[in-house]
């Protein structure tokens, strides 16, 4: 084969790969130390994973933000002509909602964010269907509308038809959403936990097998943000080998509600903390959360000391000497080094090092379980394989500036 023919085949192959994948750049917000206060984050997680959880008003009075610890977001477009929205891609929930045009003046979060106006879109249909999601600080309420949803912009072709339902929010609870960098939420868990059983935009994308031959999406979170604004990338319909190294380890789902798998075990250095236990991979959570007794054992072994109820710090000068924490998934070991599980927060020139582990006791039937958030996903490229009902994990490639 001539060099020209070889080059042509390579270009064709690359074109086929490029056509079968859509890339959504992710951006990362910066949060103050209070965003990682474990008693506050625990309330947020319980709202997601404990049905009927009674919200702790004391925690809210201390400054709980419903999505304060969710950091990575990207863009989608809605309607015709297409209008861009910053969206939190959350694998721990299953609904799409954005602020709605015409929201009352009392809804400050709506005023400070991009609003969807059904009357300004030639493809939008209003419905009389009410939509409500209960958060600790109040209810997010609005109406269901139907319109086109596009990933990566309308020119990519990765769009739903105009019958895609989503919530147009008239009320957003609390002040937490006012300062959020994103406009709305796009839940990417399974339809079984979707409020009002609304189908998700990915359902239509995945059903178009010519456009999307692989019904999956994947997240690469860039943890190397020193002078780098690129927070990562989400891909639909294929993985990107440039974002991981080695082989992908696959773990089948144990249920199709959240992205729920079986964690084979967790150990600190040579000490086994837990054997087999349920785990959920959640892009909308910054920390790693597990049963309180197991997390306390981890904190002791990594030299964590409690500064307020549930919040642990380690001495920054000792981070490099801390032990490795290893999780077993898909028959492979996934190691977290201290620089992976310790979060260094600098405010007004002073730095503190916060443990990325927090204790939370989720009762049956959802628990007990571990929640693998960005502390874990930042180290390991995560593939959410909808078609084969499995999670894939591989070591993430280093970020580029």
Automatic annotation (TrEMBL):
The keyword Disulfide bond applies. The keyword Electron transport does not apply. The active site is at 90, 282. Gene3D superfamilies: Acid Proteases. SUPFAM superfamilies: Acid proteases. This is Peptidase A1 domain-containing protein. GO terms for molecular function: aspartic-type endopeptidase activity. The lineage of its organism: Eukaryota, Metazoa, Ecdysozoa, Nematoda, Chromadorea. GO terms for cellular component: lysosome. One of its GO terms (biological process) is proteolysis. Disulfide bonds join 103-110. Belongs to the peptidase A1 family. Residues 1-20 form the signal peptide. Keywords: Aspartyl protease, Disulfide bond, Glycoprotein, Hydrolase, Protease, Signal. Residues 72-394 form the Peptidase A1 domain. PROSITE patterns: ASP_PROTEASE (PS00141), PEPTIDASE_A1 (PS51767). InterPro entries: Aspartic_peptidase_A1 (IPR001461), Aspartic_peptidase_AS (IPR001969), PEPTIDASE_A1 (IPR033121), Peptidase_aspartic_dom_sf (IPR021109).
């Amino acid at each position: 084969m001539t060099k020209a023919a070889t080059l042509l085949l390579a270009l064709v192959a690359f074109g086929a790969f490029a056509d079968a994948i859509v890339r959504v750049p992710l951006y990362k917000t910066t949060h103050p130390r209070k965003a990682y206060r474990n008693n506050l984050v625990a309330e947020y997680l319980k709202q997601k994973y404990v049905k009927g959880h009674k919200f702790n008003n004391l925690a809210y009075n201390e400054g709980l933000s419903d999505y304060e610890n969710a950091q990575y977001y990207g863009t989608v477009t809605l309607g015709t002509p297409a209008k861009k929205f910053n969206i939190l891609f959350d694998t721990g929930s299953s609904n799409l909602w954005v602020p709605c045009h015409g929201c009352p003046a009392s809804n400050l979060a709506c005023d400070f964010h991009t609003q969807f106006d059904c009357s300004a879109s030639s493809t939008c249909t209003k419905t009389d269907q009410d939509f409500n999601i209960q958060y600790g600080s109040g209810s997010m309420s609005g109406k269901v509308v139907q319109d086109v949803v596009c990933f990566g912009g309308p020119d990519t072709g990765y769009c739903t038809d105009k019958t895609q339902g989503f919530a147009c929010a008239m009320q957003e609870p609390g002040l937490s959403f006012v300062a959020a960098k994103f406009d709305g939420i796009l839940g990417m868990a399974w339809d079984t936990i979707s409020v009002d059983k609304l189908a998700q935009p990915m359902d239509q994308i995945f059903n178009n097998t010519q456009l999307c031959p692989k019904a999956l999406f994947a997240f690469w979170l860039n943890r190397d943000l020193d002078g780098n604004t690129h927070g990562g990338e989400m891909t639909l319909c294929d993985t990107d080998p440039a974002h991981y190294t080695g082989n992908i380890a696959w773990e089948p789902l144990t249920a199709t509600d959240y992205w729920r798998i079986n964690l084979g075990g967790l150990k600190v250095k040579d000490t086994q903390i837990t054997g087999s236990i349920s785990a959920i991979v959640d892009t909308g959570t910054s920390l790693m959360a597990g049963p309180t007794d197991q997390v306390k054992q981890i904190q002791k072994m990594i030299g964590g000391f409690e500064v307020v109820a549930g919040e642990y710090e380690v001495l920054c000068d000792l981070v490099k000497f801390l032990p490795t924490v290893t999780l077993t998934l898909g028959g492979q070991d996934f190691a977290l080094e201290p620089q992976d599980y310790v979060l260094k927060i600098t405010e007004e020139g002073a730095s503190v090092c916060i443990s990325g582990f927090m204790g939370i006791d989720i009762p049956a039937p959802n628990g007990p379980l571990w929640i693998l958030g960005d502390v874990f996903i930042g180290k390991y490229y995560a593939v959410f394989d909808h078609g084969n009902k499995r999670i894939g994990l591989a070591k993430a490639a280093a970020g580029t500036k």
